[in-house]
Amino acid sequence: MANKDYYQILGVNENASSEDIKKAYRSLAKEYHPDAHPGDKESEQRFKEISEAYSVLNDPKKRQQYDQVRRFGYSGARPGDGYQSQGFDFDLSDLFEGSTGGRRRSYRRQSFNLDDFFGFGGIGDLFSQIFEREGGFGQSAHRTQRATDIHANLQVPFETAVKGGKTVFSINKEGKCSRCKGTGSKGGKKPDTCPECHGSGMLSQAQGAFAVNRPCPRCMGKGQIIREACDVCGGTGHVMGEKKYSINIEPGVENGKKLRLKGEGAPGMNGTASGDLILTINVAKHRFFRKEGLDIYCEIPIDKERLKKGTTLKVKTVYGNSVKLNIPADTEPGKTFRLKGMGIKSKNKQGDQYVKVKPA
Q1: What's this model's pTM, rounded to 2 decimal places?
Q2: What are the structural domains of the chain?
């Protein structure tokens, strides 16, 4: 069990994105779900391995811990490397020091076989128990998985960035399955409480001098079991689909500004709230104007003779009207003129427009 390669189980490489891992899990979970293969122990075991791999690789902290240990290797390590093929030694007093109010407690040195820990639930659960001390040793540390935020770029037309207004866009994201209403159960039936862990999602097992909490193998840490999986989402409760949004853009919005839409990210696991959708604004370029904050910049070509004699120009503004700009005689090419108050209007602030003359 210690030699499990979660990436291989899901059929993805170690650099796979969170989205790739989710896609692989949904496909495999649907294919090997026990309800699709009644009485097939091999499919049931495969489904457990797939769920176990996903529970670790889909959690950033667990995945990081798993990758760290995986990098050292579970077997074939040489003596003195800190790991042995059959187990490793450590002093429990070192482990518990600092968590007992400064009092050093004496524990005898013990040898632990990694196979004892990797029996089910995955290395991420064990190491998060030991190193994070979440919930305390020997106590239930069943945690619902934090939902994932979705990041996306949103291109806003230049005119909308200047004047403000509504912009409509669509993204392809994971959402609640409409067929089962997110329950994962066929017909939307409410899942049953797991009889093994009684809904806690965790089981406690003694390991030497202390107890280790691990996800329940019956429900894979969810605390609930689905008797018959939804034929659309395969029991996950989530499906990919396109969703349309309409949001208000404030006048003068900056390029690179981030907007957060609460609860519009990836759906949470085990009943937790959904993550957020975080949009990064990209203001589209304009063929004539350039925007910097609330100020507007533009360039107008003028022939040398008109620059020498002086002239009057009609200059277009971002609001569609034109204003007169007097160009004095003997104006040097490249000179910039300021049109006060002709920039972007935003709340109580008003930008300016800067006009640069260049030789035609």
Answers
A1: 0.52
A2: 147-182+231-285 (2.60.260.20), 192-225 (no CATH), 290-359 (2.60.260.20)
